Structures are given as structure tokens and as C-alpha cells.
Amino acid sequence: MKIALIGFGTVGQGFIDILQEKSDILRTIYGFEPTIVAVATRSRGSLMHPNGLDKTALLTAIEQGHLNNYPDTDGLQRDLPVLDLIDQCGADVMLEASWTNLDTAQPATDHCLRAFQNGQHVVLVNKGPVALHYDLLQAAAQQTNRQLRYEGTVMAGTPSLTLARESLAGCTITSARGILNGTTNYMLTQMEQGVSYEAVLADAQAKGYAEADPTADVGGWDAAAKALILARGLFGANLTLEDLDVTGITDITLDDIEAARQAGERYKLIAEVTAEGGSVRPVRLPLADPLAGVSGSSNAITYETDLLGGVTLSGPGAGKHETGFAMLADLLAIMRYKPL
Ligand SMILES: NC(=O)c1ccc[n+]([C@@H]2O[C@H](COP(=O)([O-])OP(=O)(O)OC[C@H]3O[C@@H](n4cnc5c(N)ncnc54)[C@H](OP(=O)(O)O)[C@@H]3O)[C@@H](O)[C@H]2O)c1
């Protein structure tokens, strides 16, 4: 499988690490032998070689700060613009691991459309295009008879979408309700120990959980983008961010947390979607709710189903290898898939 990797930051590097560490197992057990034919960044160069790039040399070059540090070889092309690189690289699959833009989802959406035009399957960990332009992408996938996969956009490599769509196939899912943002869950968990909102936000930023501008996390917008993806992917619901009722955790005080504790409850930022709509808001959950016990930066989701009742999955919702694994899982799924 020839792969083009657009975005070579934390997740892209985590994905290449996994390919390196598990290459023997991937080949012998799964028959999976990936070749990286192109890698692109925004400010640290791009590389393309139709016969494949050396994974160790790629990681060394980016660790040294720029893909220009990759050694010269016959046939290597440097610094092609991303769309030209997608046109010329001959990949079977394009991985979109560039920056999430929840305003326009660009330029990642154009990367995906260009990949489909070139007959490539598309795998995203970037939420933007799936949250904002799902129909456009799905139509392009269908027209070109290629797959659109995006497991890593919700709960990283914890298989929230695959569980719902494959393992629960045949059940009717009536709602999805989850803790989909690790930063705010970490903050609420710390606040239960009496740490103020301001102090825990500073702590989350210092630990790298929260961005310098934390609005997407604490305002509920990151969870809302994931709710849209679930609404689309599970229910076919044509929602936009404006259709969701979104409230973050910015107004939650230590007094609120304490009042919940005294009532035997716990505050969680809950994203909920059904076929009709959805919301993201802080909710006081009874301790018996499986989501109430999910602490720290973990994520979890409960699917309400007709045949099984509630089914809850919890696990990491972010991380270099946790999200890199999501791309591997999607690639293995593409490899297994045989159209009828
Ligand atoms: N990190 C996580 O745990 C996690 C979990 C789930 C989903 N995600 C999603 O996965 C994606 C990647 O996350 P990350 O943590 O790896 O981010 P990151 O470390 O900031 O890396 C982003 C990469 O994308 C590149 N990039 C940005 N704009 C680009 C463009 N227009 N064309 C080509 N490359 C571009 C950046 O280039 P430079 O190297 O020049 O900056 C960088 O290499 C994001 O969309 C994120 O929301 C991340």
C-alpha cells in the first residue's frame, strides 16, 4: 500500500513510529507492507519519492527540524506544493493529519477532494473536513469508488465509530452520549480535588493538554465537532455547528462541583446526539452512570441500542501513538475491504 501523509506533526510521527515498531507483525500477521511515497508539512518542507521514503530517515529529518535534512536520493522531489504532491505521488491512500480548522476545514478538504480525484482512499484524523463537509467528501468517495475513513476524529484510536458501525451493526442505535474532550474531563476531575478553574486551566496548558487559546476545548467546540461527526456517521443527520446547543465548562465553579458531590453526582461535559439533533453541555451525572467514573483525560461513549441497552466504551481520546493507531486501524480496514 502506497501512502501519502499530509501533516507530519505529533500524530504523523506517531503513525510512522508504529509502522517501524510493528513492521514484522504487520507483514506476517496482516500482510500489510506500507510504503510512504509522500510527506508534507506546512512550514517544514515536503518530500516525494514514487519508490518510497525511508521511515527512519524521515523521523530523523523532522526531529532535526526540517524535511530538508532528509538525504538526497535519485528520484527524490522536495518542496512540491501539497496538491501537486497528491497529484504526482501515485499513492493508494492519502492520510490527512494536518491542522484542524473548524471555521472552513481548509485546506484539508481540498486535499481530500484532490486525493479522491486521483483515485486514492482517504483517511482523516483531522476533524474539520468530516465535521463541516461530510456530504461533499462522501459524494466524492462514492463517485470514485474509494473509501472515506475517519476513526481517529472521535476518541483517537479508541474505536468509537467502528464499534457503532461494525460491531453493533443490526442493532438500532437511538443515541450516542459521551465524554469526547479529554482536556475538559481532566479539568473537571482536578476541580473535584478543589483546584480552581483558573489554576487547572494553567496546569492543563503546562501539560500540553490545552492549547494556548483553550476556547475549542473549554467552550465545548471540539466536543461539538465530534458530535457532528457522530450525528453524520451514525444517524445520517445533516447538522451544522449552529444546530447544536453548545455550552462549555467556563462557568462551572468549585461550588457547583461541591454541590454535585454532596448530591452523589459528578459534573461531566457531555456530548449527546440523536437523529434529531444534539448538544454539548455540562451535566450532573449520578455516580452509577458509567460515564461518571471516567476520570482524567480519558474519553468514553455510551450507545443506547434496542437490542443491548446501553453499551459503553472508554479509552484514550488523544495522544501521539493513540491517534497514530487510528490511522493504522483505518488502513488495515481498507486493506480488508472487498466490494461485493
Ligand atoms: N494530537 C492528538 O492527540 C490528536 C487526536 C485526535 C485528532 N488529532 C488531529 O490530528 C491532526 C494532527 O494533529 P497533531 O497533534 O499531529 O498536530 P501538529 O503536531 O500540530 O501537526 C500538524 C501537522 O500538519 C502540518 N500542516 C498544517 N497545515 C498544513 C497544510 N496546510 N499543509 C500541509 N501540512 C500542514 C503541520 O506542518 P508544520 O510541521 O509545518 O507545522 C504539522 O506537520 C489535527 O487535525 C488534530 O486535530 C490530533
From TrEMBL:
Q: Which residues bind NADPH?
A: K127
Q: Which UniProt keywords apply?
A: Amino-acid biosynthesis, Methionine biosynthesis, NADP, Oxidoreductase, Sodium, Threonine biosynthesis
Q: Which residues form the Aspartate/homoserine dehydrogenase NAD-binding domain?
A: 7-151
Domain (Homoserine dehydrogenase catalytic) spans: 160-332
Q: Write out the pathway annotation from the protein's UniProt entry.
A: Amino-acid biosynthesis; L-methionine biosynthesis via de novo pathway; L-homoserine from L-aspartate: step 3/3; Amino-acid biosynthesis; L-threonine biosynthesis; L-threonine from L-aspartate: step 3/5
- Which catalytic residues are annotated? K226 (proton donor)
Q: What is its EC number?
A: 1.1.1.3
List, in alphabetical order, the Gene Ontology terms for molecular function in this entry: homoserine dehydrogenase activity; NADP binding
- Enzyme class, one word? oxidoreductase
Q: Which InterPro entries match?
A: Asp/hSer_DH_NAD-bd, HDH_cat, HDH_CS, HDH_short, NAD(P)-bd_dom_sf
Write out the residues that bind L-homoserine: E211
Give the matching PANTHER family: HOMOSERINE DEHYDROGENASE
Where is NADP(+) annotated to bind? G7, F8, G9, T10, V11, G12
Q: Does the keyword Plastid apply?
A: no
Please list the GO biological process terms of this entry: methionine biosynthetic process; threonine biosynthetic process
Q: Which family does it belong to?
A: Belongs to the homoserine dehydrogenase family.
* Gene3D superfamilies, sorted: Dihydrodipicolinate Reductase, domain 2, NAD(P)-binding Rossmann-like Domain
Q: What is this protein called?
A: Homoserine dehydrogenase
Its UniProt entry gives the catalysed reaction(s) as:
L-homoserine + NADP(+) = L-aspartate 4-semialdehyde + NADPH + H(+)
Q: Which organism is it from?
A: Phototrophicus methaneseepsis
